[in-house]
Fold this protein.
Amino acid sequence: MSIYGYHIPTNVLVALLIIFSVLVTCTIAFGILNKVKKSKLSTELLTRVISWWWIAGGVAVIVAAPKVFGTVIIAYISFVALREMFSIGIFRSSDRTAMFFAYFAIPVQFYLAYNNYYTQFLYFIPLYMFIGVPFILVLTGQTEKIGRSMSVIPTILIQTVYLLSHLVLFYNIEIEGYESGPGGLLIFLLMITAFNDVFQFTWGKLFGRHKILPKVSPNKTVEGFLGGVISSAGLGYFMYFLTPLEPWQSLVTGVILSIMGFIGDAIVSAIKRDLGIKDTGNIVPGHGGALDRLDSILITTPIFYHLLIAYLSF
Amino acid sequence: MRAFFSKILYVILIRPWLKLIIGVRYRNKKIVNDTPQYILVANHNSHFDTLSIMAAIRYSQFKKTHAVAVEDYFGKTSLSAAAVRFFFNAILIGRSSKESKKDPIQQMSKALDKGQSLILYPEGTRGQPGVMQDFKRGVAVLLKDHPNVPFIPVFLEGFGKVLPKSKTLILPMNCTVRFGKPVFPKSTEIEDILGEVKTAILALQKRDERYTNDFENI
């Protein structure tokens, strides 16, 4: 389909159609449930679905609109995630200058990603922010507990900016004979990751018996994890038409992304447990903070990018 | 006219900036717009407190809501006095502890008599983030003299990290403005009214789970 000469691949439209029809179905179902038998659960489900509409709208722009819009949206999400980490973490008053400085890594990193300066993209945060932030901390002259701040602030930048900015790299991929383009790759990644969360949650709720990480996240079970992996493999196989991959490669990707999603989820859970909070924030009604939603995408994005490069170079 | 231009600035610039960049979130802000006249009482940690509260108020209420500011701090230069008058519709009062020609309570009473609303910080000044200081008596005197005006408790969380006292760097940080239900004080003793106000503000702090940690004082 073309709008004013701007081309949206058919497969991407099909995928978006699937997402929005699932959403419409859920909204009607939960809406009726909330009307007929109003309870705390039904209201909660409805709030969640309404938030999903916002998320799906963002996804639609990221996969179907011109590159610059997607980049700006992803950069802003990254900013919200960074702000959230700064808000829940434990810092010293003398860290404020370094934290302010850290925010400026976002425009630089996304500029590098947008223009495909891949080498500079790779080392800007791991090298220069790991030098710049400690140096600014040193300038403030407060050495008490400075080691903690020197490690925590740049590491948060890796987690919320570096990992997430890999999403923009997909815009730069060009593959001969592959029609869906970056939109297809991105929607494949985002769908697998989001549905994997839902699969693991649902399988765990239905059949969960054995806890997998009892000390970190009591809600996660072996059954939920395995069910999630199998369902995501199936979804990966089914959605292969969005990617330049063979069906079996797509299935393996589903398995790997499912495991990575679990890891990302577990990492954020552990941080929350350490800080004694249930959610990382309240910016997404019904879901909690931005990081509660992004936890698995942070890890699956770079892994999918590297997988793709590996498949394509063979 | 002043309120009109001020409100335009709030709508097109200040509110988007507060919500998108700084990270201010509001809870139950309908309460303010549904109450015809009130004294808003809040804890005070930052210059952002008043800005964020004013940004939440609808125009019909915004026109007649005054922030109360002390003259010897905000009235030091004519520029800062003009700024707080423009943005906060401020009433500049003298400090009760110092020699002053105007009686601060009388100035505020006069505004209440005219049907106007006030924003007051009973702590008097911005304190350490997360630490509640002793309350000044003024708010209780006003509530006692105007039994028809309720107070709305407001708890501001995280603002001490955005712009703490004696700092100039503004740091984006998630922070919340939480409005409570309007309360008509039951008691008539000054001390008891102060107690009621304090309990109402602190109750808002405990209701939700905390999402922010205060800075360590290093």
